[in-house]
Specification:
Number of strands: 9
Shape: globular
Bound molecules: iron/sulfur cluster, FE2/S2 (inorganic) cluster
Largest sheet: 9 strands, mixed
Oligomer: single chain
Distance between the termini: 20 Å
Strand content: 5-15%
Order of helices and strands: HEHEHEHEHHEHEHHHEEEHHHH
Strand order of the largest sheet: 7-6-5-4-3-2-1-8-9
Structural class: alpha/beta
Length: about 375
């Protein structure tokens, strides 16, 4: 079937979607994560992409993404995160940025830096790209390349950061922390400063996708986490006014859960390369949810009526102890995908919460470290 047919806007189609009674306030989404492709030259063992990657043939075409960006802006979305995989693997990346910019969206390119040439970056800047985020695997080149599963990645990232800064595009460096690099938090923040980043995210691995598969090999010790948190505090004081350092306590060592994505279906959406719209990047791990696609529905219809988005909105789906907890509209019961991964029940209280009857499992899992080799992300489907 021709993609044009599949990608036809839904506005002309009869809307037969259900209109459920709502026991929650429907907010406007603020952010959209567009996973343009699952193809990527790197194979990071903590990749949040699903274990089964969308093949290239199933990716949305340029026109469909452009329509979705326009619908997103009309729906209230302000920030568009162009991600993957490696978004630079899309030959139409410049056109996509142009379309997003024309829709009035603030565009953030989340890239490995490998696969976006200097020339492409210059064209992206002209097309209106507002911000770039690159990830750094380590401050030591050999270790960084080993973690990325790609020789030369570290050198390319350094060169790319310089190209971004030379074009006056604001740069954020994202350092993903795990057992192999946690003792070099200070060196990685120093590197981000040297690269000219305005912001650095010290992001402890979250155990979804490939990271869940590699959990034992990635898990730091409690002592390492404690030291890293102290280091971040001291670096914040030392570099105050020079760089913003964002960091949070990693889930498996926390006492209260994160309000994952500010609550399920409250403020953001994810679109897979093939067009399925998800409340979060790991939502497809939850069995029984029905995800709608931008090939068949408008984004506004999906946001308001998709069964997957409505599954965990409000508080009526909650179990105890969340149901009667005073924090239920602060952290929304934590992360549904983590509740599923650890307790087997997506409706359960996130076991990171100290009030969860499963909380002890989190501490037990944090103790289950292994020195096994990383299971690297399966290479992207061939061209
Ligand atoms: Fe949050 Fe539920 Fe824990 Fe209360 S019981 S703090 S709502 S996760
Ligand atoms: Fe899915 Fe947190 S990652 S709800």
């Amino acid at each position: 079937m021709a993609l044009d047919t599949l990608d036809a806007p839904s506005a002309s189609r009869p809307d037969t979607s259900p209109r459920p009674e709502r026991d929650f306030k429907l907010h406007s989404p603020l952010g959209l994560l567009a996973e343009l492709t699952h193809r990527c030259p790197l194979s990071c063992p903590y990749c949040s992409n699903p274990l089964a990657l969308d093949p290239r043939q199933s990716e949305l075409d340029t026109e469909t993404w452009a329509r979705v960006f326009s619908e997103a802006a009309n729906l209230g979305v302000l920030q568009l995160h162009l991600s993957g995989g490696e978004p630079g693997a899309r030959r139409d990346l410049v056109e996509l940025v142009q379309a997003a910019h024309a829709s009035g969206l603030y565009t953030n390119l989340i890239t490995s830096a490998v696969g976006v040439t200097k020339e492409t970056l210059q064209r992206l800047a002209k097309a209106g790209l507002d911000h770039v985020q690159i990830s750094i695997q380590d401050s030591e080149p050999a270790s960084a390349d080993r973690i990325a599963g790609y020789e030369g990645a570290f050198a390319r990232k350094n060169a790319f950061a310089a190209e971004v800064v030379a074009l006056n595009i604001p740069l954020t460096v994202n350092v993903v922390i795990h057992r192999a690099n946690i003792e070099r938090v200070e060196q990685m923040v120093t590197l981000a400063l040297q690269l000219g980043a305005r912001r650095v995210e010290v992001a402890h691995v979250q155990y979804y996708g490939w990271a869940l598969r590699n959990r034992g090999a990635l898990m730091p010790t409690a002592a390492q986490v404690e030291q890293a948190l102290k280091t971040v505090e001291s670096l914040r004081k030392q570099h105050h006014g020079m760089i913003v350092i964002d960091a949070v306590v990693p889930d498996y060592y926390a006492r209260l859960p994160k309000p994952c994505l500010s609550g399920w279906g409250r403020r953001s959406l994810n679109i897979t390369p093939g067009g399925r719209v998800l409340p979060c990047h790991a939502a497809e791990t939850i069995p029984g949810l029905e995800f709608w696609s931008v090939r068949e529905h408008s984004l506004a219809d999906i946001w308001a009526n998709s069964p997957a988005f409505n599954a965990f909105r409000g508080t009526s789906w909650m179990q105890e102890p969340c149901r009667s907890c005073e924090r239920r509209e602060i952290d929304f019961g934590g992360c549904r995908c983590q509740a599923l991964a650890i307790t087997g029940d997506a409706r359960a209280t996130d076991p990171v919460c100290h009030l969860s009857p499963h909380h002890a499992k989190v501490a037990a899992l944090a103790e289950m470290r292994s020195d096994a080799a990383y299971a690297y992300r399966t290479p992207a489907p061939s061209k």
